[in-house]
Amino acid sequence: MSTVRRLPVIAGPPDGSHPPDVPPPPLRRNRDFLLLWSGAAASLLGTRVSAITYPLLVVFLTGSGTAAGLVGFAALLPNLIVQLPAGALVDRWNRKWLMTACNGGAALALGSVALALAFGRLWLPHLVVAAFVESSLTIFYKQAERGAVRNLVPPSQLSTALAQNEARGRAAGLLGQPLGTTIYGLAHWWPTTFTALSHLFGLCGLLFIRKDLQRPAQRRPKGILGPIRQGLAWVWHQRFLRTVMVVIAGSNLLFQGISLALAYLVEHDKDLTKTAFAVILVARGVGGVLGAATGPLWMRMLTMRSIVIWGNITWAVLLPLIAVVRDPVALGAIFIVISVIAGTFNVVGGVYLVRTTPDRMQGRAGSVMDLLGSGLSALGPLVTGVALDTWGARPTVLGLGAAMVCLALATAISPAIRSVPHKVGDIPLVEDEDEVDAAPSDPPAGDGDRGGRHRGDAEGASPPVAPAGGGRGGGRHRKRAGRRPRWRRLSRRR
Predict the structure, then answer these.
(1) Which structural domains are found in the chain, ordered by start?
(2) What's the pLDDT at 176?
(3) Please, what is the end-to-end C-alpha distance for the chain in angstroms?
(4) Using an 8 Å Cβ cutoff, are 469 and 239 in contact?
(5) Which terminus of the chain, N or C, has less C-beta within 10 A?
(6) Over the chain, what is the mean pLDDT?
(7) How far is Cα 490 from Cα 94, in angstroms, rounded to an integer?
(8) What residues contact residue 268 under an 8 Å CB cut-off, 6+ apart?
């Protein structure tokens, strides 16, 4: 008679996380993260394909450049008017069902365009509305996914997970253009059908995720304007974040101008052919993927301030060279390095933001950084276009390079940036119940930070925003225990 040996039961945390002494499994074995990552990859690739084919569809329907510009404007408008409301609503709603609804709505919008094209019934207003809806839902999805990742992977793997997300986005941008134009050449309605199916694939992946994508909260923000103001105030009171935000906005403006200057050079400079321009575009995409893939390596090797300062200095050295170099291979090498730095910045910035932002503020903080970081980008082509018509290509590019030099110098001497000596992986993950509203990587009290911290109330309400990183008077709003108000002390003396 055989006996059955019962294996000992190893107790673990009730939430399914791994004990501190047990290393977590690699991300390739994290089922929920793979479902989220693959579904988002399919949705993002479909979005890139549709963005490439929108102007082609408009030209096919109307042959009008104005109509193509209208559709492009509808696709970009949500970046300005939807970001902040999306962040406020993402922090209030269930992330899993919100992302599922976003995929479903985008699939319906693009599927309706595909059906209309197949039956020859597509109108321009239909395409404008579909472009606006898909772009708006993509913003909601992006804000929700950023906060969801930290709830699916352990803190030690957060940098790698976000680096894979950035590499996924860069790869989608690299593959979206040739894939979209190829599919469009087969049939006009195939690109929108592909996009609709990609969103359905992402929707199905979300349905099989078992873990919760956000922490339970006793109190959710209500309204729209109030939470938006809280998000703006929270980001502004983070000394390092608000400084980096200005640097990112300035560099984005300059690189938008560089992109327009390259297109201008293709048309007016005989030494730079369209083939060379295609090589540069491929080099930018490859560099972005490499930067995202190597982001965790740079974070392990360098501190946060070293990455920001030396990245901007390298940009300042390379940008003026674009005005004088005409060899396609050399230009491609320049843009590979530029894009590697950009991809690394996106990974490092994303990891820093996710680690230093409470889960209840992920949507609002991310939307503020996305809006303010890219809000000036629209001015880049506008200012650069005037400069190109006035001075020509070479002086304009040299002027953009000089502006980058000034920005790099300002970054190098900035006290806020130099006050963050930590590596990103050493920054602890901020939780909702932590007694902080300031970024943990800001200088501690006694090292330049005179801001006070507030405690939340006993009912789990969100603690008020406290100045961080050199903010003044954070503690002056806190009543001192056992001390009477000043007017009572004066009346007592009388």
Answers:
(1) 26-213 (1.20.1250.20), 224-444 (1.20.1250.20)
(2) 82
(3) 96
(4) yes
(5) N
(6) 77
(7) 52
(8) 393
Among residues 154, 425, 163, the alpha carbon closest in space to that of 300 is found at 425
Specify the 3-state DSSP secondary structure of 445. Answer: strand
Question: Over the stretch 152-181, which tens digit does the pLDDT of each residue have?
Answer: 888 888 888 888 888 888 888 878 878 887
The tokens of 20 are what? 């501190």
State how far the Cα of 20 lies from the Cα of 315, in Å rounded to an integer: 41
Q: Per-residue pLDDT tens for 70-98?
A: 887 888 788 888 888 888 888 888 889 99
Written as six digits, the tokens of 196 are: 């609709």
Residue 44, Cα to own-chain centre: how many angstroms? 13
Conformational region of residue 111, where left means phi above 0, alpha means psi within -120 to 50, and beta covers everything else? alpha
For the stretch 126-161, pLDDT in tens is 988 998 999 899 999 988 888 888 888 888 888 888
Task: Provide the token pair at 51.
Answer: 């963005």
Q: In whole angstroms, give the CA distance from residue 305 to residue 303.
A: 6
The percentage of the chain sitting over the pLDDT mark of 90, rounded to a whole number, equals: 18
Taking 90 as the threshold, does the pLDDT of residue 109 lie above it?
yes
Query: Residue type for 173, please?
Result: G
Q: For residue 219, what pLDDT is reported?
A: 58
- Does this model's pTM top 0.85? My answer is no
DSSP letter assigned to residue 470: S
- List the beta bridge partners of residue 449: 445
231 three-state secondary structure: helix
> What is the Cα–Cα distance from 348 to 159, expressed in whole angstroms?
8
Q: Which of 354, 364, 320 is nearest to 338 (CA)?
A: 320
94, with CB counted inside 10 A (0-12, 13-18, 19+), is middle
The 8-class DSSP code of residue 85 comes to H
Label residue 21 exposed, middle or buried (CB < 10 Å: 0-12, 13-18, 19+).
exposed
